Hints:
- By secondary structure, the protein is an all-alpha fold.
- Helices cover 74% and strands 0% of the residues.
- It contains 26 helices and no strands.
- The protein has helices at residues 4-28, 35-44, 49-77, 81-101, 107-121, 131-155, 161-184, 190-210, 224-252, 260-274, 281-294, 304-334, 345-349, 360-384, 389-402, 410-434, 441-459, 465-479, 489-513, 518-538, 545-565, 571-575, 578-594, 600-621, 630-644, 650-666.
- Residues 677-682 have low confidence and may be disordered.
Amino acid sequence: MMTPRLRAWVFSLNTFAAAMAALFLGLRFSLPRPYWAMITVYVVSQPLSGALRSKAVFRLLGTVLGAVMACVLVPHLVNAPELLSLAMALWVGCCLYLALLDRTPRSYVFMLGGYTAAIIGFPGVSSPGALFDIALVRVEEIGLGIVCATVVHTALFPRPVGPVLLDRIDGFLADAGRWAQDALAGRRDARTRREWHRLAEDVTALHLLATHLPFDTAGLRPRAGAVRALHERMSMLLPILSSIEDRLAVLQTSGKGPDARRDTLLQALSAWIQAGPDAARAEGQRLSEACAALAPPLDAKADWTALVTTSLAVRLGELVDTVQDCRDLRAFIRDPTGPAPERLTPLLLARVQRPLHRDRGLALMSGIAAAAAVLLCCAVWISLAWPEGSAAAMMAAVYSCLFATQDDPVPAILSALAFTGVSFVVGGVYLFGILPGIDGFPLLAAALAPTLLGVGVLMADPRWAGRASIAVLGLLGTLSLQERYTADLAEFINSSLAQAVGFIAAALSTRFLRSVGTDWSAHRLLRTGWRELAGLASAEGVPDRLGWTSRMLDRLGMLTPRLALATSRDEALEAADALADLRLGLNVVDLQRVRPHVGTAASLSAGLLLQRISGHFRARSLGRVTAPPVELLGALDATLGSVADAPPSAQKRDGVLALVGLRRALFPDAAPYRAAPLEAAR
Length: 682
């Protein structure tokens, strides 16, 4: 097994070998700009072979898309430079908007399609008649780089996504098991809260990593359905554990004293979870039955302790079933030759997509900022008749897009400018000090090796990958290696200045039109969740339970680093509990599902309650209120009494549990429930 350091060197050597092969073949085939093939190798190379293949495919698609748009826009608008500038800026902005709405690797198609049109189109305005040939050659050069990178990284010490994904899954299940043991023991502290947030981040990270499986070199691809099913089960662990933790806290402070049967069950559950994948399935079945037996009967006379105990019993049973599902799916993924448990067949056959959080407003702001940066450079280019102005507009398009996912991209853009400046210096040394003495391809490769191998090692380190990639792209673009040595000092200086202007334009446009603080982003994430909660409560039909869970876990994972970086003490942020909001939404969905089946009076009461919940969260998303009104508590208790009085059924039980969950999420500090008159809900 390779150490991380050795793996980094293998990655660097593979990337360098692929880059040299791309450059050699580009020269052999007499491509006009073979250095584009070399640059492409460094752009698409990834430590994981599946990630490399997916990026290669999406880069090729994005390149074709951008080339087609350049061929459409430039010949028709070349005689109206202002219109061409506007059209190109709008194209870049629209593509960036679409890319930011898709947070999977597919987004690379749109982002690359946007700035590739600028890369091909702006330099091509001087010869619009030859633009199709230029675009075709660019696609060929990039395709050559993609082929070289894919072949080398696949043939020489490939690192498949599958084993990495399995290790991440094992790590997640181990962490979730520790949290489960803490929850069952009644331990709640700041460390536990951090665990919640980290697990939420891991859920989204695992989902994004799994999107590379169809492109992987390992044999995990046939088990993609099992990976999706496992991911769905893992997602549900967080709200289940949070609910268990909450219900145990209520029972421990109820003043009723210890419950020997409950405590024995909790200890047995903790031991079963600690045993890990080797735990006996029969023990899991026994624990599931014991959880069901723990629940007292539900009727209109049930007190708060009985209701909470029933809720706890059901959630404990869900925990046992979910953990067992995770273990079975994990085993099936590791050894697909064995049969999958029959009860998992529906999960394995389901083709459910996992939606992630989308921020259309921020994506629109990013698109506008990118378009403005391109227009600013085009205005300078046209007004000054600057020969190198196309490079400025091109770089503004590229770097407005690359860092658009960050809250404040400006520091990253300026950091990229600094590293690009370093690459200019190194490139100047090569151009005017080293390359004039080079004769032949072997000497060229030997001269480039020390620098490119060192940068390649840094690219394999997540802490340095972004900056190292910027530096190597700047260096290779500066060298612009072709069949003959054609360095010119004046052109070198002009080109470097033009690229710097593009960086500065991107930074200025982003600063004034796009940059936001971490506090603002955190508030926006919370408000988006509250707005969706309002929509769940006012929905006509039954909302998508898994979709809500997926989006809220994604928001929870995004919220964690922003809360840590918040620059001011904000009571709303400090009091925010996105995991409680997730549980609340799940209970709203469950209440919507059972509402038609609990009798007319209870259904009417539940409908009015949901309207009030919707109104509260709609007002909260607008910043008008923070705490739920007392009237909502009265309506909730009245609805709880009405549903508890309904005839016995599975829907009645689920409705009562949903209302208990809503009460705990909305009013955690309220006095214990006492049945209210039904009129209070009207």
